[in-house]
Backbone:
């Protein structure tokens, strides 16, 4: 006996990453990274050298990370 139920496919949207962040090894604040290329460069150096933000570490972080939720604290040009 054949199954008469039509086959449906579930379309899933691809994960789109539009914001890159890194945690400063000096002040431990999360900083927004301008591009994927810059992020990948930081990431490639991570085993040998921690990322240090170019901002004054007294400034608030760009991103608030709490548990499973993340929220941008500031709007950036082009965002």
Residues:
């Amino acid at each position: 006996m054949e199954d008469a139920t039509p086959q449906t496919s579930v379309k899933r949207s691809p994960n789109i990453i539009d914001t890159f962040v890194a945690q400063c090894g000096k002040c431990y604040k999360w900083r927004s990274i301008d591009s994927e290329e810059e992020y990948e460069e930081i990431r490639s150096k991570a085993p040998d050298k921690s990322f240090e933000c170019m901002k004054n570490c007294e400034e608030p972080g760009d991103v608030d990370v709490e548990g499973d939720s993340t929220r941008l604290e500031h709007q950036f040009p082009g965002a």
About this structure: The chain is about 15% helix and 20% strand. The helical segments are 36-45.
